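Minutes, project check-in

Agenda point 3 was the complex the collaborators sent over. CS summarized: two entities, 510 residues total, and the question is how they sit relative to each other. Sequences were read into the notes so everyone works from the same version.
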Amino acid sequence: MKTLLALSLAVACGAACAQTPATNPMPDGSRDMYVGLGVVVAPDYPGAREKRVNALPLLQLEWSNGMFLSGMSAGMHLSRRPDLEFGPLLALDPGRDQDGSGNKVGGATPVQSFLAGREARVGQGLEGLRDVHARLQLGAFANLYLTPSLRLSNSFLYGAGHERNGVVWNLGLQHISDGLSPRHRFAVSAGINLVNRNYNASYFGVTAEESVLSGYSAYAPNGGLRDIYVGAGWNWALSPSWMIASTARVTRLRGDARHSPLVERPANFSISSGLVFRF
Amino acid sequence: MGMFRHLSASFALLITASTAVAATHEGEWVSYRDAYRAMVMFEKYGKAKHLLQNQFQVMSKDGNVAPDGVQLHVQGKSTSLNWPLDPTGRTAFALLKAPYDDNAAIVLNRKGGKYVFRPRISIVLRPDGVYDAAELREACEQALAYQRLADAPLRSKRCVAVRFVFPKGMPDPGVRLRKGEAPSLGVADGPAFEGDSYHAFRVVSYRFGAGGDKAPVVTQNAPLAIVPVFE
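CS then shared the predicted structure for the full assembly.
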């Protein structure tokens, strides 16, 4: 059970994996909160050649009743088994405008920065394409611990995209290690994202009208595998109240998303680091 | 320019925080909240566990360092507790709301070195030193069932023995089966728990099946711990 100590690493997990253990892990009426600020370097949008540096607010809250808020996701734990986590999940898909954004950074449970300054764009980019508006997604998560330090993660979200009918299904494997020191926790992860046609059409498709306005060829992608990724996270606890949470992730677009005319570079790299206060 | 601004601000923030916390705790420490999360699982476990106890262990990663003399201090805004450790590095962990809400630190009274903090399951000692063999097996099974919950590889293992742990240097701890003048069970140097770095305890293993598990196991001296063994 020693690796349950590693669950504080949750602050350095992705949306659906940043959750408390199944049974109430804290005294009744207590909560565990993390707030922080850092920077993220990530592509303008999935498949973009250009990268941007943004401020990265970090936020994670857990309550003794099982509810949690992690970055742009919220949910509730319903399982009573320590090796199994499941429950409903709400997430905000940040969408994408002609300046980009909408990238998900694996790791530090980012609150996507809507306020961050925009860098000057170079290249064709997304001009002429419809904005994909931010959407509230509904879904569920179910994670299974194969060992105390190895977890299969699984989340399903519905509601992204132009017509609010995009589906994203994430399957991942995460290994958490605190072998070097109680102050340093490391995580490595790998996984895939599967999406439906509606999701791909919103983010990687080009309609005839958009083709005229943007100059891209019209493109109507199907659903399927959107991407595969590998990532790493590192939490360095400076004290019980302060930690530095850092993440890195390499994502490679696959399937019809990969062949979209919007995709300038199928492999994207993102990295983030932030200072987090726990209270 | 924007990128430079963001990076500068972040590094300034990191340096400020690092300076602020540098002198907070001089010894090795662990977050009370993280430890609480690890320890509370046993408390909430709903199946049979009456023959078991769950304690918090601190163990040096350097095998030459005995746990003797190590103490833990729980430091928080409204919390100040001292937790002495037994010779195996264990202490009873108090599941308290105040230090949790304080986000207290559990600080070791040793500077330097690397330590590992973890929960340890062991079998409850009997004051009369007489252990029914079937009950030892039952205790081992309880421990295995609990630890299997979060550790799938243990599902392929089974209880094979219990290990009686005695202080370093004890020539004959005097663990024997109550069968007239039965000789003491064999003793060797070893660790208290699997994965411990300190191997100088005197340990006596009682393997299930020896003597048909009918004769009680009698300890002449109180052991420091009785530890279930899975293979």
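Noted in discussion: Helices of chain A lie at 197-204, 208-214, 255-258.
Follow-up: revisit at the next meeting once the mutant set is ready.
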